Amino acid sequence: MSDQSVMESFTLTLDGAEVSAWPGETLWQVAKRAGETIPHLCFKDAPGYRSDGNCRACMVEIEGERVLAASCIREATPGMVVKSAGSERAREAREEVLALLLADQPEREASPDRSSHLWAMADRLAVDATAVGERLPARAERASPTVHHVAERADSLPHAGGHDATHSAMNVNLDACITCGLCVRACREVQGNDVIGLAHRGAAAKVVFDFDDPMGESTCVACGECVQACPTGALMPATLIDDAGRGDSAVADRTVDSVCPYCGVGCQLTYHVKDDAPHAAGSAPSNAEAGRILFVTGRNGPSNQGRLCVKGRFGFDYPNHPARLTRPLIRLEGVPKGVDPDFDPAEPLTHFREASWEEALDLAAEGLTSLKASNGPEALAGFGSAKCSNEEAWLFQKLVRTGFGSNHVDHCTRLCHASSVAALMECLGSGAVTASFMQALEADVVVLTGCNPAVNHPVAATYFKQAARNGTRLIILDPRGQALDAYAWRSVRFTPGGDVALLNAMLNVIVAEGLYDQAYIDTHTEGFAALAASVVDMTPEAMSPLCGVSPGTIREIARAYATADKAMIFWGMGISQHTHGTDNARCLISLALACGQTGRPGTGLHPLRGQNNVQGASDAGLIPMVLPDYQPVGDAQLRAAFEELWNTELDPEPGLTVVEIMDAIVAGTIKGMYILGENPAMSDPDLNHARQALASLEHLVVQDLFVTETAQFADVILPATAWAEKDGTVTNTNRQVQMGRAAVAPPGEAKPDWWIIQEMARRFGLGWDYAHPREVFAEMKQGMSSLDHISWERLETEDSVIYPCLAPGAPGEDVVFSDAFPRAGGKAKFSPTRPLPPDEPVDADYPTVLTTGRLLEHWHTGAMTRRSRVLDDLEPEAAASLAPAELGRLGVAPGEPITIATRRGRITLTARSDPRMPEGMVFVPFAFVEAAANLLTNPALDPYGKIPEFKYAACRLSPAAP
């Protein structure tokens, strides 16, 4: 509570005791703080859920009032005298409400959730369901109401009778529904998806999906918020329902709190675990004991407030896939390296043999050390992983730098936000976001460009929707349409590759019309005069042909951003994955600096991070040109501190990046690699080239969960642990350092990544002896000032702490750079840009723009999500998305195959009609090996961020040959 709210507190009487309350607080909330949880059904005590007061299970008696009041919606007032636990009248009303509801419920043992919140409330009130059944007739025994306007569902429909098992993730049983409306509020108000509604009135009222469609055929995005909210089990995870429709949400033996392993939002969640064997009386299972995750619920973390998306809620079973690696593997002699279409990852012994850990580690390390001995440190390189913990990222880059002897270490940031980091480091002195995405709720204007949050950051998207509902003006700038267009004040479609032209035209308007913040510029920036001079000729009229946006629209959105009191800019890989990606980010930074839109609540610059720990892995030093905390390897003073910490002399030369390493392999410079949890045989551009490079390596060690496409090139494969099988910290897109905890034991002989890296280091002669990730974290704190005042013990207690944290116990700074920037002199720098064409413009031979990205249901190269039953059921095959008119031009119907060809390769996949796609463009996801999008993409690099141009390649479309 703030000091102001404490000053405004008042008192009332609850069951004869004087209690305090605050303005706007409900009687239910007052009672809870006083130690009483009043029975409730339609109310959910969680962020984002408003009170509705329709179930009447929480009634209280208020002195001087004739009727009882619903405590969940009745606000407290000074001097009020309330009876709750001490009111016989309220008790009888609550009991009768529960009795009436139970009369219509399936019998408890036959219900979809025998441990539902409804049954818990009945138990609390000691309502005997058997006695209720003797006193009140069940629904089936009563005459059906006459409702002439409602037609019964035909028996042939898959959701006839209110039973619906058409969705692979969730079951619907309306026999248990009490029409409380919680699922409607969960879907519409919390997640903002507007799929669930209440149809009809009175006795005919029922929950429906879209226009009373089966759930599996509706527009449901499977976030599962409705399942988490449902108090009766009418909506349940399919994994908890047997063939007879019975279930039990309390079947788990224990729960473990952790963090989602997917995108950079960093949602906190709880694993519900069933142990494989009973425990001895009085003994407590360790988190990592053998068991299986039954289901997942969202937890009230700072970035998700209990919300999850389809991946976080239902994509938890990939560690149990039959293809999971459980023993080290060594390549069979004479088996060629390559992606073999006939190879079955679940049966790897056709290409590899099993080995002991000792043999595999010895061979893995010996192959690398011998190459170093004969060719020098420059012959080795390593790819780390943004899906591993901060501690594992630290150890991996430390091994490369102190064991391999070079800075040839990189990870997926090179393929997602390297150009954003390059621009932020140049202009602001820091590569991290300046404010969390939660600050969008405080903004007057939010610009979303080159990102599709509803697909790639779904929980963050819920806050953008909420902001828009609260009056924030969303401005979406993108060549493609998206779901958030429905919430946008302006959705501006520009020509692919026309970002710099559009953004410079906006800067021209701001400069020409004097809309910039001169006081902020003078105090906080340098180089504005050069920027202003550079955009003089880039008027909306001059730039409109290049970006495809009318001059009037450019002026409108520029004025809206510049004149807003508080504005934020969010961007994704549609900005960064271009040869001009750094220029794109420079333009966005210039917009914010020119208008003074940083350093205050509701303002800032935020590149939405891709993978769950890409921020933390970058912070920890998995970047070839910088040490941890982005300290340049060429700075002798900074490097000396790490040399002292690690007791090793370090290479002063920046290392090679992901694509440069592949080029160096083909050139014969790099001969050995250690790849941790990355899949460049799927994720790199121009895969033919990347796969040629991997096949050329004299020695390749791959550490992963599965025999991925990259692992098919390996000499030694080391079986690692999934996220739910280990402890460690991760850092999300908001700079929140969060604690992940092991929930189950790894299968077979799989080992934690940090343990494997340490064993490899020992074979390089490094005397490492870490017994637990907490010891690694302690070392990280010695080299990373960003972790000041954030200890392992604090994270174990608080789960999440945002950096920078300025004092012990301080909450951390959500909004940074209010006073100064971490550059020499403390001022941010404007960096002028000029529009440049894409590296490979469309032409008569290749007239269509190819762009790539992710799907809601699938992640990165699909190694995890395609091995998750629900996720793969929802999106089982590759599809190319095109505008309906584009399909018409090709003479291809949706569902028919098309072939996409570029100068590097061709793929064939199913065509999908998408009205949000512009004509002249095709979108292909890159998670499907059978139609690998990166066989087509352009490896041309941004000269600053060294990121490939994934978002633009010239291609040719044609109907697939029969």
UniProtKB/TrEMBL annotation:
What molecular function does GO assign, one term? 4 iron, 4 sulfur cluster binding
Q: Which UniProt keywords apply?
A: 4Fe-4S, Iron, Iron-sulfur, Metal-binding, Oxidoreductase, Repeat
The family database entries (PROSITE patterns) matched by this protein are listed as: 2FE2S_FER_2, 4FE4S_FER_1, 4FE4S_FER_2, 4FE4S_MOW_BIS_MGD, MOLYBDOPTERIN_PROK_2
Q: Which residues form the 2Fe-2S ferredoxin-type domain?
A: 8-88
Q: Where in this chain does the record put each 4Fe-4S Mo/W bis-MGD-type domain?
A: 253-323
Q: Where is the 4Fe-4S ferredoxin-type domain?
A: 168-198, 211-240
Q: Does the keyword Nuclease apply?
A: no
For this entry, the protein name equals Formate dehydrogenase subunit alpha
The GO cellular component terms are: membrane; oxidoreductase complex
The organism that produces this protein has a lineage beginning with: Bacteria, Pseudomonadati, Pseudomonadota, Gammaproteobacteria, Oceanospirillales
In terms of superkingdom, the source organism counts as Bacteria
Q: Name one GO biological process term.
A: respiratory electron transport chain
Q: Which family does it belong to?
A: In the C-terminal section; belongs to the prokaryotic molybdopterin-containing oxidoreductase family.
